[in-house]
Amino acid sequence: MPWSTVLRVSVAPRIGLLLIVWLLAYRDSVTELVTSGYWDSVAGQSSSLLVWTAPAVAACGAWEGMRVRQARTLQGAPARSCTTVSLAVLSPTLVLGVLAVMLSLGLLLPQAEGTPDRITAAILVLELLVVATHTVVGYVLGLSLPRLLAVPVALVGSFVWMAYPAAMNVFWVRQLNGTNLAECCELDQVAAPRSIFAPALVSIGLLVAVWLVTARRWGPRLLAPVVLTTVVAVSAWIVHPLGYRAAESRPTASRTCSGTHPQVCLWPEQRDAAKDVTAWATDAYKRLTAAGVTPTAQLVSRSSTPTSDDVRALLALSVLPKDIPACAHTGEWPGSTAYGPLSVWLTITAGADAQVVASRYAPPEVEAAKRVLEQSQQDQRAWFQQNAKTLTRCDLQPVL
Questions:
Q1: If we measure between CA atoms, which residue out of 301, 108, 43, 296 comes closest to residue 188?
Q2: 3-state per-residue secondary structure call for 267-302
Q3: CB 185 within 8 A of CB 38
Q4: For the DUF7224 domain, which residue ranges apply (predicted)?
Q5: How do the domains of the chain map onto residue ranges?
Q6: Predicted confidence (pLDDT) per residue in 145-201, tens digit
Q7: 3-state secondary structure of 249
Q8: 92-127 pLDDT, tens per residue?
Q9: How many angstroms from the chain centroid is the CA of residue 76?
Q10: pTM for the whole thing?
């Protein structure tokens, strides 16, 4: 059949127009979640749009399968094999899936810098595999189900599988449909290989199970649920250690460190701002030590576009403990009320803009810190030391 005829009778071009409009409408909701300049984050967030792409191609595949079934193209003794005929019929839908994946990535490309790495390529391959799987599953549903059920079942079933697991508390289920990579990545993270391999394995298992279902003999058909169950079980075992996370720690070898007070370590995406970040961190360090506070000796920012206030706040808050004391798990912890005022005082002392800091904390916490800032440096140091002790104990009352 000529390609012009295939495109003319296929539903994919018409559904494709609606899908493009839909993806464009959701661009902003995805864009704001991207870690700017980081390819792994761009690719990971693009996978969230599979929630719309997969059901669209599944419905198209079901329509094409239903049309082939009505025409009885696969019956009798055709000159071409069933696989060849099916690929010819599905080619517009497969092209639609590829274009939708490329568009999903292209919408976020303005936030990417440099060149993509192997992780980015692996995520894209996974997305293409997911799209191909939903197309084929939809096609087989079209060949198997009654005419009025094929497209609705393919559309709704695909959407439920892609969207619903994200709301489940059974975390490993989230990892199996290919969309959980949207949980990745901050600058200090990379996509965990498990989070890519497991959904790829599930997609391959679905393809094998569908192929067995289309066999003419009952033996292979009975193997289909066995294969699918085994693949899901293995995939669940693979991703179980991750919980809901799709990322793991990024190798520190890719960081560049300079300076001494503090030592500033930057990821490749931050190196354009190295001079400013170092200057801000050095100034904040001097201010804090002059106030009698000893901040961290090494500064690592997770923001791809750090500002002066961000850097100063990060260095200032490094003074405070990251975890609550053990006694707080079983009883009252009076020192919890001191965390806010101490954070405000530290951040402003480090040189951050007072108005910006005030916008990030509750007004009573800001007022308490401002009253302290009006006192002498010696009194401020005593106030900090007295209240800082309450953050690690449960038997002291803060005096704010």
A1: 301
A2: CHHHHHHHHHHHHHHHHHHHHHHHCCCCCCCEEECC
A3: yes
A4: 264-394
A5: 3-250, 252-316, 320-400
A6: 888 899 999 999 999 999 999 888 888 999 999 999 988 888 888 999 999 999 999
A7: strand
A8: 999 999 999 999 999 998 888 878 889 999 999 999
A9: 48
A10: 0.83
